[in-house]
Amino acid sequence: MKRAPFLRVIVAVASIAALTFLAKQLDANATTAGFAYLVTVLVISTWAGLVVGLIASVAATGCFNYFFLPPFGTLTIEDPANWVALASFFVASIIASRLVVNARTQAEEAEAKQRELEALYALSVDLFAATSQVGALTEATTRVLKNVGAEGGGLVIFGGSPQLQDVVCWIGEREEEAEDLIAGVGRHREPLEFPSRSGRDVYLPLNVGGRIGGVLVVRRSAAALGTLKSVANLVALAVERERYLGERAHIQALRESDALKTSILRAVSHDLATPLTSIALAIDHLRGLIAEESDAMPIVASLDEESDRLRRRIENLLMMARLEAGKSVPRPEPTPPSDLFHAAREHLSLIGQRRAFDVEIDDDCPDIFVDPVLAAEILVNLIENADRLSPPEATIQLVARRHPVDASKVRLEVLDRGPGVTRNAVAEPGDSGRAGLGLEIARSLAEANRGEVSLTNRTGGGATARLDLPAAPVPALETAS
Fold first, then answer.
1. Distance (Å, rounded) from C-alpha 39 to C-alpha 15?
2. Diameter of the chain by CA atoms?
3. pLDDT tens-place string over residues 293-329
4. Model's pTM, two decimal places?
5. How far apart are the C-alpha atoms of 84 and 465, rounded to whole Å?
């Protein structure tokens, strides 16, 4: 027996002996003595616990029998009523001491629960104060491990599956099997416990809305499992909050980028519109001053063409900005490919004056379900690109046919006899000068119309720019009544 419990037993027995001596000195009767013994047993049970209280009950019962129940000075009882009194006293003392101990135990458990709640509240305040900025989960994890009395551990976040693990923070040694244990917890969604030299190691899943986002590892901690589960729930909320803050920051950055891009485009268009108008007027004036047969006329024509191309580029950029900002949306309608080819060539009248076009439209080619204005701009940019890279005498072909694989699409092609491309699909920087602003504009406008642009080499030399767009739905035939 340890020294402290032994001393409590001695104090309890001495208290019963002192009470007996005092009762004898005062010549107390059996009822008074029995009540005094009962109160003393209750006090001892409250102070020293159930075991010491039971010992005090036995001692008090013996003293009560020996000194206050006849025949006095013996442990025998003659009157049956005294047997009942003695048994009642013994049972009452045991039951009362047990109730007192249970009440005290419940009070201690309630205090422990209150302390746990207070600790969890303080931890939650520390945790969310630590994650008030994006990227502060390391500090938060350190605070968590410190609050639960852990000697090590860490926080691991899953990147889509338990096998893709991102170690946010780790304190102490990390064994090789830790990765497999963490993956197992992520798959089975249940905590794992292992004994350690000064407590136990616990792997706790971070569950938010039924999704396991990671694992909190607590090494060598004596905290209760229920407390650690509550801590893991707080960490899971902090991880989710961190993810939300990151997404919000990303969205805010995108919004600011879009706003900046729109502002720049507006400023550029405003600042360039007036000079371009002045240049166009100056070119018209020069054309009037120079004779048609003058050697300077081709230069004037080239200036006119380049200024017109610059104006269209600016208009295309503004159109793209409005589409990306949601201030403008495509308005698709059934459009014949011939109309699109005709509109594009009208926009490029200067090119049409010096270059031959060969238009080919298959008889079974359906109409295209597209915004005609945007589709014409796509073709304008592709034709300009083909004209810029083709020899002066080469013919540009415009072809429209059903898509060879997808019946729900129509394929428009712009074929040239330029240097071709070095790679298939969409050109990248360095592909014989094809990767320019015009191609980027064409690709962006095609995506807005649920289409796509690609480049490939043409048989016999040159390149083919392909524009795949949705085919217009065929009206249902009315059945004869």
1. 12
2. 154
3. 677 777 877 787 777 777 777 777 777 777 776 777 8
4. 0.47
5. 111
